[in-house]
Amino acid sequence: MARGDAPRDSYHLVGISFFILGLGTLLPWNFFITAIPYFQARLAGVNSTVGTLSSNHTGPTDAFSFNNWVTLLSQLPLLLFTLLNSFLYQCIPEAVRILGSLLAILLLFALTAALVKVDVSPGPFFSITMASVWFINSFCAVLQGSLFGQLGTMPSTYSTVFLSGQGLAGIFAALAMLLSMASGVDAQTSALGYFITPCVGILMSIVCYLSLPHLEFARYHLTKKPSQVPAQELETKAELLQSDEKNGIPNSPQKAALTLDLGLEKEPEPEPDEPLKPEIPSVFIVFQKIWLTALCLVLVFTVTLSVFPAITAMVTSSTGPGKWSQFFNPICCFLLFNIMDWLGRSLTSYFLWPDEDSRLLPLLVCLRFLFVPLFMLCHVPERARLPILFRQDAYFITFMLLFAISNGYLVSLTMCLAPRQVLPHEREVAGALMTFFLALGLSCGASLSFLLKALL
Q1: Which residues have a Cβ under 8 Å from the Cβ of 6 and sit 6 or more positions away?
Q2: Which residue spans traverse the membrane (predicted)?
Q3: What value does the mean pLDDT take over residues 16-22?
Q4: Is 11-455 in CATH node 1.10.3470?
Q5: 390 three-class SS
Q6: Weakest mean pLDDT among 36-40, 138-142, 182-186, 196-200
Q7: Which of 135, 224, 314, 388 is the most exposed place for a label (fewest CB within 10 A)?
């Protein structure tokens, strides 16, 4: 708690609210990429208005390069709003940013759900879907940054709770997909139920946000001015990445980026009677200290987003048609990735290896480039150039296990090591730089996926 006279979080209602808000911020991205087979079927003109949530034995053709475009248009808004962060947040009130973003996301997802029942030709359907992806992820970027700004006045444990909610969004989407497929209803009803699920999640997020001013604990902290936040808490916020690693950050790549960014926004102005703080650190000097770690972060996400989900979502089971072939990709691609990525991030709670002075980190990061040819040589039926060398399902499952856990661990490790490589008063600048390079890595990986798709 911030002070001894602070109210208590009765029944953990504030913690639950921030957990649900964290879940809601990343539901859109995860629900879109998990439903790639549905979108591919619609774009290929399969059953006109129906489509299917599951991939068949041969796999639907990736018409319009949907996998690549949905990844790119989901990550570019993060890079854009990382650059526009300070300007946007000073011009628009916090409540407008949060509630406006939630309502816009809800309406756009309702449109996506309604399109399940509408007969739209592939071209217009692709255009509408891509526009929805862009605007939904733009609002999500604003929403996350705004909520992390609010968390700047809360005890640090609530940041971890929020991040935990974000981390479970991918697992939640994969489980929703599996339940929809296993429900036994027709394909159209199954797809409609799947896309209504995140709408319910966003509605719950809106209710949770509106309830915060009515909870004494939240009202006590959220109405404090930055200068009223105790020094001990401010120090904790500046070291948020390091403390989060000890608590196990879940799976979303965007969460760590926006977390440290709040340090720059919530830094209190020194009072005249307070001792002078160290001068503002030079961005160039801080970059010189962390450039190798930042480059490692860029390369980790470049590798991950170059093949996931653009290539991995195209991999199908080599077994004959049946239940396993239908459930293969949702389980072995999306659910497995999210679980193992979360576990990989949690490993930093127990050890940090290699340390910031070791040259093994760049080597481990570069070794992950081996996953690119490995996945491209797996069982992807729709190909024109490369052969299939790893036909059996066991190969893909093994590659995905190592791919996901290494992604989670190396992302968590690099974000944890960066603050350790600079002086205490330079950590906020280091965090802002890592924010930019994280978004840059995501965008580079999404762009590279177009080339890899063309090489198949």
Answers
A1: 217, 220, 221
A2: 12-39, 69-88, 95-116, 128-149, 161-185, 191-212, 290-315, 327-348, 360-382, 394-417, 429-452
A3: 92
A4: no
A5: strand
A6: 182-186
A7: 388
